[in-house]
């Protein structure tokens, strides 16, 4: 994880992925923000870390336990997923930052 903040995460926290994608089911004019939390453990243990994101009241949310062999597919990073498709140039950054400027982020889109 990118350690720019003073936050401490347990060793079970594998990765936080934040991606933008097009989802016509949600909006035909704006990209959607997709957050994936990969945590090696039970849902009850990840709750304190996922809670603040759930408090944002996302339009759509899926959660559950996934076997290790299916993590890439469940988080949208499998070789057949749009993020990893041929010809794309994905940019991924860990969201563990000291500051985050949503206005600038939206302007870049």
UniProtKB/TrEMBL annotation:
Descriptive protein name: FAD-binding domain-containing protein
Species, as recorded: Apiospora kogelbergensis
Classification lineage: Eukaryota, Fungi, Dikarya, Ascomycota, Pezizomycotina
